[in-house]
TrEMBL record, chains A, B:
Family of the protein in this entry: Belongs to the class IV-like SAM-binding methyltransferase superfamily. RNA methyltransferase TrmH family.
Signal peptide bounds: none
Oxidoreductase recorded as keyword: no
UniProt-recorded name of the protein: RNA methyltransferase
Gene Ontology MF terms in the entry: RNA binding; RNA methyltransferase activity
Length: 254, 254
């Protein structure tokens, strides 16, 4: 065990940059709950923790382990309130098979920009038993540290893929592809299938034109009371949750 | 019209502090959409905008208006990407009447800590036609600039109150008071009323013991498939949305 060199701290901070994460094929995670979850799923390249944490976890596997003081941890951490342990994990490689959309309910994200929104969506996908999220190439990086933290461990179970969304949707044949639009049909009055793809759009601009043309089931989340003056939209993570909940309610409790 | 003095910029930045906001009874909002919404609802003490924005809005009412360069706006703004206009509004004063809970659906928040979560909850309350949110005294301040921004204008319509939650709930008599718990009843299998109070708990600790004892309808949001390994919780704003959506679905589309 070694303490943290300046170079190591520099390396950890450099993982805020997508370019470095991509070159190194790694990502950073912090905190006992999250790191504990991820250690069961991904190879760990490096782990730094307080002696208290290390004593509680004598059997961890990592290429390199450093016992650090709270002060050293604070210097390395990207969080406002550092917590006992941080670790660098290898990025997993997943294969994207269009069959997933024929056999289960999947999510597609068209240019989601906010790291927190992506992380929150991964967390709720985990809750609603959605295993695959297909992101457009311009969607924010899933290994952004803010995204990883917001998943609260969901990133260990939900597989996030990046690809051309229009090409992917075209490869699906006649699978149901859902999206929400102001002129869509009230989702409470539509039969919602247990398989298919739900597309969610960018925070400011919604679903792009090319993807919109490929959506064959247009839905609408009704506000309440309908037609009332309201803020004209829901946050994208909130909208995703409300839609996924309705799909699952219809599948299991209708 | 005057440009921005150093003192004015200092004043704007000081509104990040709850103490100053409380003394001055004001709050800060930024961006054309949000400021435009709020100008219709709250007296404006001070507004700073680019000449382009001001030319488009010749009829605004504010005690003081400053035409500023993009550069000056950037120095005053609390946002990463400043947008055309910022304004200081007077805090509204609302009266809290327990009758609201007997006549409509209301939300209660027990020590929500994250400003973004509170803002997102206000935005979705607006969407779901919830007019009153009753917060415990330790809930984050609704006039925190991050909260105000995240409401996306919902703060103009949703009335947020701070009070002792246990005392308030005791004053409600036999009104239905809902909360989510792991040992609650599946919300899809319960009749949900169109009036009453839905209590949501702190991000880390959930609903406090004193408040829990006053809840007379314990609910559970089922995950999917039920009993599957998942992250053990939803973000509080996500959970609030899923619950509110189900209350409104049952009221309007069951």
């Amino acid at each position: 065990m070694a303490s943290l060199s300046k170079n190591k701290i520099k390396y950890i901070h450099s993982l805020e940059q997508k370019k470095i994460r991509k070159e190194e094929q790694v990502f950073l995670a912090e905190g006992p709950k999250l790191v504990g979850d991820l250690l069961e799923h991904f190879p760990c390249r490096f782990l730094a923790a307080t002696s208290v944490w290390l004593q509680k976890h004598p059997d961890i596997h990592a290429n390199e382990i450093a016992e650090v003081s709270q002060d050293e941890l604070s210097r390395a951490s990207l969080l406002k309130t550092p917590q006992q342990v941080l670790a660098v994990f290898e990025q997993p490689r997943y294969t994207l098979n269009p069959e997933a959309v024929h056999q289960s309910l999947c999510l597609a994200l068209d240019d989601i920009q906010d790291p927190g929104n992506l992380g929150t969506i991964i967390r709720l996908a985990d809750w609603f038993g959605i295993e695959h999220i297909i992101c457009s190439q311009n969607t924010v990086d899933v290994y952004n540290p803010k995204t990883v933290q917001a998943t609260m461990g969901g990133i260990a179970r939900v597989k996030v893929h990046y690809t051309s969304l229009p090409d992917f949707i075209r490869s699906l044949g006649d699978a149901p592809v859902f999206g929400t639009f102001l002129d869509g049909k009230n989702m409470y009055e539509q039969p919602l299938s247990a398989t298919g793809l739900i597309v969610m759009g960018n925070e400011g601009n919604g679903i792009g034109k090319e993807v919109e043309a490929l959506i064959n089931r247009k839905l609408y989340i009704p506000n309440y009371p309908q037609g009332q003056e309201t803020s004209e939209s829901l946050n994208v993570a909130i909208a995703t949750a409300v839609i996924c909940a309705e799909f699952r309610r219809q599948a299991a409790w209708k």
